[in-house]
């Protein structure tokens, strides 16, 4: 691990990882979107992104709409 590389925390499992190894997302009202470059963002690790239970937990936590939940699940599946 190199010095001075930013470390961020996964919001689902709270593991700290290099920022570049995490998925950066953003909350917009009751939706989750890929980070737009503006505003507050949060991070998800790849292990959690492939964990159905964790993803469902996030959907509940952010009170996502049905459409957005579907998009979110699909988006994470396609990341790998
Ligand atoms: Zn995680």
What do you see in this structure?
There is one protein chain. The chain is α+β, with helices and mostly antiparallel strands and 80 residues long. The chain has one domain (7-77). Helices cover 32% and strands 24% of the residues. The strands form 2 sheets. It has a 3-stranded antiparallel β-sheet. A two-stranded antiparallel sheet has the order 1-2. A hairpin with a 6-residue loop joins strand 1 (7-9) and strand 2 (16-18). The protein is globular, with a radius of gyration of 13 Å. The model has no long low-confidence stretch (mean pLDDT 95). The structure holds zinc ion. Residues 10, 12-13, 15, 45, 47-48 line the site of zinc ion.
Ions, cofactors, ligands: which are bound? Answer: zinc ion
Computed over alpha carbons, the radius of gyration is: 13 Å
Q: How would the global form be characterised?
A: globular
Number of alpha- plus pi-helical segments: 3
The chain-level mean pLDDT equals 95
Major sheet strand order: 4-3-5
Architecture blueprint of SSEs:
Layout: E1 7-9, E2 16-18, E3 23-28, E4 31-34, E5 42-44, H1 46-49, H2 52-61, H3 66-77
Antiparallel strand pairs: 1-2, 3-4, 3-5
The structure holds zinc ion.
